[in-house]
UniProtKB/TrEMBL annotation:
It comes from the Eukaryota. This is Glutathione S-transferase-like protein ustS. GO terms for molecular function: transferase activity. CDD domains: GST_N_etherase_LigE. Signal peptide: none annotated. Belongs to the GST superfamily. Gene3D superfamilies: 1.20.1050.10, Glutaredoxin. It comes from Hypsizygus marmoreus (White beech mushroom). InterPro entries: Glutathione-S-Trfase_C_sf (IPR036282), Glutathione_S-Trfase_N (IPR004045), GST_UstS-like_C (IPR054416), Thioredoxin-like_sf (IPR036249).
Length: 250
């Protein structure tokens, strides 16, 4: 068991604990490659201390100093510790070339461009999803999440959620973002159902990670998820079902 990768994730109160879209990217990646790993759960306030202990560099620098985030992994085979899902995917491809490739040769630039273009399509989602996320966190993480997000947005999480007619307008913007991504897939459908054709790649796991996040925080029986399931002829529910085999939580 000495070669088992340690995968650091953020727990929740949900069954199975996993919820974070960013850490789901790495879980999908590890399962896709079939690499042995174990999950260590880390509450939000403990991420910086853990990262420093492992010698992991900050993932960003802000006005309040360095920021440490998950996912992160420690690979005892090489003695490597690193954070950030795309960097982890690139490391796993390079270190384990005989496993399925997340970013196949020739696709690195394309996938990086896709991820950069994909994230803005999610912008209308934050006002709905962040307050819902806060409700499924353990107490220490809940306090941290609320404090930091309210500082970012300048309002309480409760006030972040639109109501009445404004809610309908903003929710329609969320759907429009998914319509954009669906349009990208439609342009490539002659090559296969996934972003680079017939084989799964990291781009697919990025989209799946944000979609499973919504399913987790709202629940399968919620009005929000029931609505999302109908979008784009049921593409997103089907997308997750296709990737269920990579959802194992170890």
């Amino acid at each position: 068991m000495s070669n088992v990768i340690t995968f650091y994730d953020i727990p929740s109160t949900l069954p199975g604990k996993a919820w974070s879209p960013n850490t789901w990217k790495t879980r999908y990646s590890l399962n896709f490659k079939g690499l042995p790993y174990k999950t260590v759960w880390v509450e939000y306030p403990d991420i910086a201390e853990l990262s420093k202990k492992l010698g992991i560099a900050p993932t960003s620098e802000g006005p309040n100093g360095p920021s440490y985030t998950l996912p992160a992994i420690y690979d005892p085979t090489t003695g490597t510790a690193l954070a950030e899902s795309t960097a982890i995917a690139e490391y796993l491809d390079k270190t384990y070339p005989d496993t399925p490739q997340l970013l196949p040769p020739g696709s690195h630039s394309l996938q990086h461009v896709f991820i950069s273009a994909y994230m803005p399509t999610l912008a209308p989602l934050w006002q709905f999803a962040l307050p819902a996320t806060n409700k499924i966190l353990n107490p220490r993480s809940e306090e941290y999440f609320r404090r930091t997000r309210e500082a970012t947005f300048g309002k309480t999480l409760e006030d972040l959620v639109p109501s009445g007619a404004a809610r309908e307008v903003e929710w329609a913007k969320v759907k429009s973002g998914y319509d954009v991504v669906d349009g990208w897939l439609q342009k490539n459908k002659a090559s296969g159902p996934y972003f680079l054709g017939k084989e799964h790649t990291f781009a697919d796991f990025v989209v799946a990670s944000f979609t499973i996040w919504l399913k987790k925080i709202w629940g399968e029986d919620s009005p929000e998820w029931k609505d999302i399931k109908t979008w784009n002829e049921g593409r997103w529910d089907a997308f997750l079902k296709e990737l269920e085999k990579y959802e194992t939580i170890l």
